[in-house]
Amino acid sequence: MKKLLCIFLMTALVSCAGDSQNIVYKPAPQILPQHIKSLSVEPFSNKSSIFGIEQRLTLKIIDEFLKDGQYKIVNPNEADGMLSGEIKNYLMTPIQYDSNMVPTVYKITVQYAIKLTDKKTNTILWEEKTLVANQIYSASTLPGGMTEEEAREKIWDIISKDVVKRTVKGFGSVTGVSEKKI
């Protein structure tokens, strides 16, 4: 009986000790060099089969930087840093059908790459080669549904917020499959 009680007490003590040790990994923020006060957002290139979507994404990213207000957005020849990117792939897939095999729910997947270059030193400050954003939406014929264009606007919002967060707060704030570097 004493052995059982001793084992119980030791287990309780070990489990309590484990709770009191809150080990949290918190890396130092990776912020941009101090000399970078202004940015230029280059028009995205578009390798997808959907014409013109790169213009809307570029404008959304510029708008999000203007909302954030931490960096001034200027012309490329006046900028300290240059943000450039590429839409690698755009895929819209029906993922749910009604009883007549008519699509009712779709998923848009956008693969993109982006990098920030220090124009003073001509070095890449950070680069994400394979980022993915998804948006699932119901067809516009259903209550609460939306058009593909409306779903695209939502995905541009997601991407633009991620890009600004990645730039302002540093790597680790947006996840991609490419290696992080600064």
In short:
With 182 residues, the protein is an alpha/beta fold.
**Count the strands?**
6
Averaged pLDDT:
86
Assign the CATH superfamily: Lipoprotein like domain
**Element order: H for helix, E for strand:** HEEHEEEEH
Give the termini separation.
60 Å
Structural class: alpha/beta
Q: Give the overall shape, derived from the CA principal axes.
A: flat
CATH top level class name: Alpha Beta
Treating each run of at least 4 consecutive H or I residues as one helix, how many helices? 3
Portion of residues in beta strands equals: 25-35%
How many domains?
1
What is the gyration radius calculated from CA atoms? 23 Å
Could you estimate the helical fraction of the residues in percent?
Answer: 25-40%
**Low-confidence spans:** 173-178
- Looking at the structure, the CATH topology is Double Stranded RNA Binding Domain
Largest sheet: 6 strands, mixed
The CATH architecture is: 2-Layer Sandwich
Provide an overview of this structure.
The chain has about 180 residues and is of the alpha/beta class. The protein has a single domain, classed as Double Stranded RNA Binding Domain, CATH 3.30.160. The protein is about 30% helix and about 30% strand. The protein is flat and about 60 Å long. Mean pLDDT is about 85; it is low at about 175-180.
